[in-house]
Amino acid sequence: QQQVKQSPQSLIVQKGGISIINCAYENTAFDYFPWYQQFPGKGPALLIAIRPDVSEKKEGRFTISFNKSAKQFSLHIMDSQPGDSATYFCAASTAQNYGGSQGNLIFGKGTKLSVKP
Amino acid sequence: KAGVTQTPRYLIKTRGQQVTLSCSPISGHRSVSWYQQTPGQGLQFLFEYFSETQRNKGNFPGRFSGRQFSNSRSEMNVSTLELGDSALYLCASSLARRGLARADTQYFGPGTRLTVL
After folding, report:
1. Residue from A102, A105, A106, A111 to probe the interface with B (highest B Cβ count within 10 Å)
2. Intra-chain end-to-end CA distance of chain A, in Å
3. Any chain A CB within 8 A of the CB of B48?
4. Which of A52, B43, B54, B76 could be joined to B66 by an S-S link, Cβ 3.0–4.6 Å?
5. pLDDT tens-digit profile of B17-73?
């Protein structure tokens, strides 16, 4: 019930195309869903995040779509660029803030995105 | 503002030894979390510290421990190292604002690459 399932494991997209990565979760207590981008040799960097009170959030070329009833959320990268080639992780947490606790992020296994020029 | 810093960046140890990793959070951040990243298991939560107290703990053996100092800097220790402890150890900090009903964003450091021979 604590798992977050991410697909696909790897993705190859042509420059200018749309990259779509999907995640599914079971724990209905999750209420914070961030996406992280990780380049080789670097730590994950927050890309965009959504809370379940909205169905979509867009920031530049990156959009999260959230389907609460299906317990699924996805990342869309529009106009994909070679510089977007990285590993993307979805995550979920209960976003609690009780006594200072930030909760722990449950991560998907990651999607390695390659954008071909 | 400087990001999360972790030292050392690379470490080679042999089985049975112990190791201490250090994390300096972003200035003003009060919560520090630690994660282990391996190719097989992905990103897994180790523990979280806030106000020098462990607030959350993941499913790792007691050989993994940590602490947080009054300046929010944190260390994690792994005793009796095993080959399977080879991983990238990531530290993440968050603001942990008082009165905020939901958790703040976690910002990751570059990690410490631990190799156990």
Report:
1. A102
2. 39
3. yes
4. B76
5. 999 999 999 999 888 999 999 998 899 999 999 889 998 888 999 999 999 999 999
pLDDT of A112 strictly over 70? yes
Average pLDDT for A76-82: 97
User: Nearest-CA residue of chain B relative to A101?
Assistant: B55
Q: How far is A79 from chain B (nearest CA, A)?
A: 26
Average pLDDT of span A13-40: 94
Residue B109 contacts A, CB cutoff 8 Å = yes
Distance CA A66, CA B41 (A): 25
Residue with tokens 């798992």: A3
Tell whether B50 lies on the interface with A, counting CB pairs under 8 A: yes
User: pLDDT tens digits for A1-11?
Assistant: 568 999 999 99
Beta-carbon separation of B43 and A89 below 8 A? yes
Length of chain A: 117
Closest listed residue to residue B36, CA positions, set B104, B107, B70, B84: B84
What's the rounded Cα separation, in Å, for the pair B27 and A62? 28
Residue spans of beta strands (DSSP E) within A1-117: 4-7, 10-14, 19-25, 33-38, 45-50, 56-59, 62-67, 72-77, 86-92, 106-107, 111-116
Report chain B's terminal Cα–Cα distance, integer Å. 37
Which whole number is the average pLDDT over A24-50? 91
Residue B101 reports pLDDT greater than 60 = no
What distance lies between CA A80 and its chain's CA centroid? 16
In terms of CA atoms, which chain B residue is nearest residue A107?
Answer: B43
